[in-house]
Amino acid sequence: MPMKLSIVLSTHAAQFQAVALKGDFETNVAKIAGWGYDGVELAIRDPRLVDADELLHVVSAHGLEVPAIGTGQAWGEEGLSYTDPDPAVRAAAIERTVSHIPFAARTRAVIIIGLLRGIVRPGVSDAQAMDWLVDALQRCCAAALPHGVRLALEPINRYETSLVNNIAQGLDLLERVGADNMGLMPDTFHMNIEDPVLEDSLLACGDRIFHVHVADSNRWYPGAGHLDFHSILDTLFDTGYQGYVSGEFMPLPDSDTAAQRSVAYLRRLALSGLAD
Question: How many CA atoms does the CB half-sphere of 142 hold within 13 Å?
Fold first, then answer.
């Protein structure tokens, strides 16, 4: 099976810097298709702020799929999280996640849980934060299950949160959540910081990899740093993974150049015998 490539596109302006593409939605979708991507991963802060029918019309018109929905802007722009000391904030974070389910069901997209999990706030113990996180994920998975929707938690490096930094911790969390529709989303940038051997961590995931983000060691596009993507992606597909490889990286030297260089580099790897 040829490698399927997507890239993150924000549906609204956002502060998060590692989203290469923002701005006019239809213009960006047209460019993404023209560059040779197969899909577009949508970063959606609040489903109420988008016209789902219009989004799907634009994406479908350009022959693209929506493999995943990013939820991190609810944290970055609004401060929602599963581990906030305020129970109203925790409830709002769960409600926001659940509100993504109808669109995810229509597109068969994975709902990504990144920094929506939050951080350990002052006065909150690590154990309490983890209990809140597990409870929230169980509730979200239960709501998603009847619709055939899956969730994927992204292990994130220690400089952004202390809650689930590496793949081993992510697998432990999956055991606590105990839901078949809950998996992981490895991100090569975070793994380069937290996982001693990326290939070993990917193999340990087995069939619990639901989506994948790629960025190089410097959070630029793949091929701009020192990660061995040939080895990493070979290992990924050795696990039996058949989903998308999705670019989430800094818009450097500029967004269009980064997006084009990423897809060109990854396609060259595929032509050399990777993932075919």
Answer: 10
Please tell me the predicted confidence (pLDDT) of residue 2. 77
Active site residues: 154, 248
The C-alpha angle with vertex 186 and arms to 184 and 190, in degrees rounded to 5, equals 130
SS3 labels along 31-66: HHHHHCCCEEEEECCCHHHCCHHHHHHHHHHCCCEC
Average pLDDT of each block of 10 consecutive residues along the chain (276 residues)?
89 60 84 97 94 95 98 95 98 98 98 98 97 98 98 98 98 98 98 98 97 98 97 96 97 95 95 66
Q: 259 to each of 37, 61, 250, how far by Cα in Å?
A: 9, 20, 10
Nearest-10 Cα torsion for 166, 232, 69, 138? -40
Residue pair 8/70 in contact (Cβ under 8 Å)? The answer is yes
Going from the C-alpha of 240 to that of each of 200, 206, 232, the distances in angstroms are: 15, 8, 13
Which strands make up the sheet holding 110-113, listed edge to edge? 182-184, 151-153, 110-113, 68-70, 39-43, 4-10, 244-247, 212-214
Give the length of the chain: 276
Task: Supply φ then ψ for residue 43, to 5 degrees.
Answer: -90, 110
